[in-house]
Design goal:
Shape: elongated
Oligomer: single chain
Distance between the termini: 63 Å
Mean pLDDT: 84
Order of helices and strands: HHHHHHHEEEHEEEEEHHHHHHHH
CATH architecture of the largest domain: Orthogonal Bundle
Number of strands: 8
Largest sheet: 5 strands, antiparallel
Helix content: 40-55%
CATH superfamily of the largest domain: MetI-like
CATH class of the largest domain: Mainly Alpha
């Protein structure tokens, strides 16, 4: 009887199913304990700000009055927002496509380079530079002053090498000294001249230190007599260093202006042209008898070529996209290069053995096999360019900020950069979120598909 009572009092044996349930429950508790800090941070830094922004977008600028969808309506009637949407579209269409293409080309070419690792490291280094630093670098590189902006310095050097530049952009004639300025910037003598005469053409506005190194005194040429069948003269700097001299007359210390083009004009037509010598002298021979006017073309006084206005309204967005390409090309190349390294080499070698050239192998085998990788890179870059802010805000100067603005910068400007309308800014943030979500969902599905 005692044994029977003990048997009835003992707990029933634990089955395997109960043990498994307890183990699963313990595993869930441990998993939740590990995940909870991450979920807490995710909620505080992502979920709460998103929900707060969505709710804030339905209130006015002060946040006290509910306005419903007025902010969303105003958003699409604001010219600055429309321009931001247009610029964002340009970014989404141009930047990811160019980056993916550049990354693909460089990844394929790097495989054939002896120092491939060093080359990849060199191209990937801009990724280590913050967008703030990169923006400052390119803001200086795009500067319009050739003495500061490296791009304009190169452009001006190439331009001047082929087309040359004026030696006297600041030169001008004195009033009442026999030269009148035309509408096109040229100078013309007021009095007629004829063969057998000499004409002195005095100019001012040229610093003595800016004179060409081969310039010579103009006085010997000025006192030289003209032959009966020639029209001659001298172009000189009508200024004596240290003072003295007489205006309108060539003094012994005054320098000639070499390299100035002089034209002989008759009845409104240029009949002869020459260039002044080192002492500023010029001569026309073989002219028919009669009266002529002498003209100094505007090309003698053209301002120097200053290069391209990279940060002007027309080019500011392409210029900023160029800076973005410099930063992210290495990223695209490395990702595509990793996909290229995993391609089956037997397929490539079989195509070469069948007689396909490198272009055919690249177009018909390499690119199709890299399709999934190229898609992931492209979509990732689309998400990234939708959120671009730093480069646009730093590189674009204040006067053209509105011409370069994108949704992210417009959201900041409306909310904190002077607009002080956080209701409208929140609506812009919600719009940006809605545009990014489809690309994010597509990318997540691609990653899951590749894992399977």
């Amino acid at each position: 009887m005692t044994a029977t009572l003990l048997k009835e009092a003992s707990p029933p044996p634990v089955g395997m199913a109960d043990r498994r349930r307890r183990a699963r429950r313990r595993g869930r508790i441990i998993a939740i304990a590990f995940v909870f800090p991450a979920l807490l941070l995710l909620g505080a830094l992502v979920v709460y700000p998103v929900l707060f922004s969505v709710g804030r977008s339905f209130f006015d600028a002060s946040g006290t009055r509910f306005v419903g969808g007025d902010n969303y309506s105003a958003m699409f009637h604001d010219p600055a927002t429309i321009k931001a949407i247009r610029n964002t579209t340009i970014w989404v269409v141009v930047a990811p496509a160019l980056l993916t293409a550049l990354g693909l080309i460089l990844a394929v070419l790097v495989e054939k380079v002896r120092w491939a690792t060093a080359f990849k490291l060199l191209l990937f280094m801009p990724m280590a530079v913050s967008f703030l630093a990169a923006g400052i670098i390119f803001r200086l590189a795009y500067d319009e002053d050739p003495d500061k902006g490296v791009l304009n310095a190169a452009v001006v050097s190439v331009h001047d090498a082929f087309k040359g530049t004026s030696s006297y952009p600041t030169a001008r004639a004195r009033d009442g000294q026999g030269l009148t300025k035309g509408a096109d910037g040229s100078y013309r003598t007021t009095a007629a001249a004829s063969p057998g005469h000499a004409v002195d053409l005095g100019l001012v506005g040229v610093l003595a230190d800016d004179l060409p190194g081969d310039a010579r005194p103009a006085y010997p040429a000025a006192v030289r007599k003209a032959a009966p069948d020639e029209l001659r003269g001298v172009v000189y700097l009508d200024f004596t260093r240290g003072g003295g001299g007489e205006q309108g007359k060539v003094d012994k210390k005054e320098s000639g202006l070499p390299g100035i083009e002089v034209e002989a004009v008759r009845d409104g037509r240029t009949v002869a042209s020459t260039t002044s010598a080192a002492d500023g002298s010029f001569r026309f021979g073989g002219l028919d008898s009669g009266s002529y006017a002498l003209r100094l073309p505007a090309s003698n006084f053209a301002p120097p070529y200053d290069g391209i206005s990279w940060l002007g309204p027309a080019l500011v967005t392409p210029a900023i996209i160029g800076a973005y390409l410099w930063i992210w090309t290495g990223f695209a190349m490395v990702l595509i290069g990793a996909g290229l390294a995993s391609l089956p080499r037997d397929a490539l070698e079989a195509a070469r053995m069948d007689g396909a050239n490198e272009w055919q192998v690249f177009r018909r085998i390499t690119v199709p096999l890299l399709g999934p990788v190229l898609t992931v890179v492209f979509v990732t870059l689309v998400i990234n360019v939708m959120k671009v802010f730093d480069l646009v805000y730093i590189i674009a100067p204040g006067p053209v900020q509105e011409d370069a603005t994108v949704l992210a910068t417009q959201m900041w400007l409306v909310s904190f950069g002077g607009g002080n309308d956080q209701g409208l800014g929140s609506a812009l943030g919600v719009l940006l979120l809605l545009l990014v979500i489809p690309a994010m969902v597509f990318n997540v599905r691609r990653f899951r598909g590749s894992q399977r």
